[in-house]
DNA sequence: CGGCGGTACACGTATGTACGAGTTGAGGAG
DNA sequence: CTCCTCAACTCGTACATACGTGTACCGCCG
C-alpha cells in the first residue's frame, strides 16, 4: 500500500489536534488523494504518524464519519464512503401514461435504469387514521383507513420504505387490500374505482434517520433521509391516498418541474 | 430542578452500555419527559447515576448529538434541540402573479409569515461558467456568466444561501448586475429583457453540510441541508438562470404539486 | 490439497486521569 | 446597592491502558 502523505500538526494553531487531523484526511478525500472505497490509514498508523493518543485519532475519525465522508468496518478498517448510483425521481413519475404500461412506478423506473427492483415486508392492516393522516385525507378521527406498508429494494439493497393510507370506505373489499395490488399499482385500482386522479401534493422534509430507519434502510452513519409525504387527489378534489415514504438521501435526487404561470 | 427519572442499565443485555444510556435519554425526549430546550443531566450526574466512566457518558451523548436530538453548549450543559419555525416553500412561489406584487419571493413569503426577512453577503461577479452550470444553461465552456451570491436571513437567523448564474450575454449591463436587482427580483428583470419565463426545474438533494455551510448557516450538529438547484427556462425553451441554494433542512418543508396527467 | 486454527491486525468498548475553558451565581469589597 | 472576584459547575481536549470482537491470512495437519 502506498503511504498516504499527510501533513504534520501545527503546534502553533489553536485548532484542536483532532480537528487538524480530521482536516488533513478530509482534504485528502476532497482532493481525490483518497478515492471512494480507499482505506484510511489505521488508527495505529495515524497514532504513530501524529504521535498522539488513540482517543485523539478516534475523535478525528468520528468527525469524518459524522460528516458522512467515511465508514468504519469492524475488523477491517475505515474506508472512504462510496456513493450508490443515484435514482432520479422526476415529477411526472406518476403520470397516467406511465401507469398505463401496467407497471408500478418504482418497478418501471428501476428496470429502465438497469437495476433489479424488488419489494418486501408488505403488510396490510385496517386501522383508525392517525390525526395527521386523517387531516390530510379529510377524515374524522373515528374513520378507518387501509394501511399498506412495504419496503423497496434495488439489487437487494433497501432504498425506500413507504406506507400508504387509503380511506377504508374506498378500499375495503378491493384489491387494494391484497398484497399484490395488481397491474399499475394502487393508483390504477383507485381509478378503476371511479376516482380519476387529478393531482398530487408532495411535502418533502430532510432529517437524520430514526434508529428503525437506519436498520430498515441499512443506512451508513452520517446519511440523512428524505421524508416525503404525498397526497393524491381525485378530480372531485377529494384526497384518496396519503403515502408516507422515507428514502436514503444519497440514493435519490428529486426533480420537479414547476410552471412559471 | 426536578430529577429526571432514568432506568438502570441492563447488565444482561449485549447492547453496549453507552447505547443503552443513549436509548434512555432518547426515549425521554421522544416521550416528552425532556422537552425542547430542557437541560439533559450533566455528564457528572449521569456518571454518578449509571456508575460508569465519563467517556461512556460522552459516547452516549455523542450518539444523540449525531442524531440531531441534542446540542452541547460549552460551560452550560447539554440541551434538547429546539426546532426553528418551519418555512413551507410551495411550488407556486415563483408564479408570475406573486412576482407582479413587486417583491422577491423570499421577502413576500417571510413577511406573510410574520418574520423579518433580510439579505446579506451579496456579491456579484462575472466569471467563466463551471462545467455543471454551463451544461444546465446550455453554454459552452468558454462562456461567461454573471454570478450573484447572497444569504437570506429571517429575524437575523441565516436560513439559506443562494448563488444564481445568468448568462453574461443576457445580463451584462443590466440591473441584474446591480446588488439591488429591483422590484420583483431578477426574474422580473429577465422578463423585461424579453425572456418570458415558462417553467422551472428544481433538483433536490439532501446531505450533511460542508464545513463552510455549517458556518454560513450557523447549523447545529446533526442537521442536514437541502441542496436545491433550480433552472429557469423561457418560452423559447432556453435556460436563462441557474440558482444553486443550500438550506438548513430543519427550517424548511418543500411542497410541490404535480399533475396526474 | 483442502480445511482448520492460530495470529496479527483492525475497530469497539470501557476505565481512569488531568487540565483547559466557558458560564453562572454567590459573596465580598467598595 | 453595585460591581467585581472567585469558586463551582459545565463541557472540551488529551493522555494512558486494557480487553473484546470481527477480519484476513498463512501455515500446519489431515
UniProtKB/TrEMBL annotation, chains A, B:
Entry superkingdom: Bacteria
Residues annotated as domain HTH gntR-type: 15-83
Database matches in Pfam families: GntR (PF00392), UTRA (PF07702)
This protein's UniProt keywords: DNA-binding, Transcription, Transcription regulation
InterPro entries, per database record: Bact_HTH_transcr_reg, Chorismate_lyase_/UTRA_dom_sf, Tscrpt_reg_HTH_GntR, UTRA, WH-like_DNA-bd_sf, WH_DNA-bd_sf
The keyword DNA-binding is annotated on this UniProt entry: yes
Alphabetical list of PANTHER family matching this protein: GNTR-FAMILY TRANSCRIPTIONAL REGULATOR, MANNOSYL-D-GLYCERATE TRANSPORT/METABOLISM SYSTEM REPRESSOR MNGR-RELATED
Protein name stated in the entry: GntR family transcriptional regulator
Organism: Streptosporangium fragile
Amino acid at each position: 500500500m502506498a503511504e498516504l502523505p499527510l501533513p504534520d500538526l501545527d503546534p502553533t494553531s489553536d485548532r484542536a489536534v483532532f480537528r487538524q487531523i480530521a482536516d488533513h484526511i478530509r482534504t485528502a478525500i476532497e482532493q481525490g488523494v483518497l478515492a471512494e472505497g480507499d482505506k484510511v490509514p489505521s488508527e495505529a498508523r495515524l497514532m504513530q504518524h501524529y504521535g498522539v493518543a488513540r482517543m485523539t485519532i478516534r475523535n478525528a475519525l468520528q468527525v469524518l464519519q459524522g460528516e458522512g465522508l467515511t465508514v468504519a468496518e469492524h475488523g477491517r478498517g475505515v474506508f472512504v464512503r462510496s456513493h450508490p448510483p443515484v435514482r432520479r425521481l422526476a415529477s411526472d413519475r406518476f403520470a397516467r401514461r406511465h401507469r398505463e404500461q401496467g407497471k408500478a412506478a418504482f418497478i418501471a423506473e428501476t428496470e429502465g435504469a438497469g437495476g433489479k427492483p424488488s419489494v418486501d415486508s408488505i403488510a396490510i392492516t385496517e386501522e383508525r387514521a392517525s390525526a395527521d393522516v386523517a387531516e390530510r385525507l379529510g377524515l374524522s378521527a373515528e374513520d378507518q383507513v387501509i394501511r399498506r406498508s412495504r419496503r423497496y429494494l434495488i439489487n437487494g439493497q433497501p432504498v425506500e420504505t413507504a406506507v400508504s393510507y387509503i380511506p377504508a370506505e374506498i378500499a375495503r373489499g378491493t384489491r387494494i387490500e391484497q398484497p399484490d395490488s395488481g397491474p399499475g399499482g394502487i393508483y390504477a385500482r383507485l381509478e378503476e374505482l371511479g376516482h380519476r386522479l387529478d393531482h398530487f401534493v408532495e411535502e418533502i422534509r430532510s432529517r437524520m434517520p430514526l434508529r428503525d430507519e437506519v436498520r430498515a434502510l441499512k443506512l451508513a452513519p452520517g446519511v440523512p433521509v428524505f421524508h416525503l409525504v404525498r397526497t393524491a387527489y381525485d378530480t372531485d378534489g377529494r384526497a384518496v391516498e396519503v403515502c408516507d415514504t422515507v428514502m436514503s438521501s444519497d440514493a435519490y435526487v428529486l426533480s420537479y418541474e414547476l410552471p412559471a404561470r
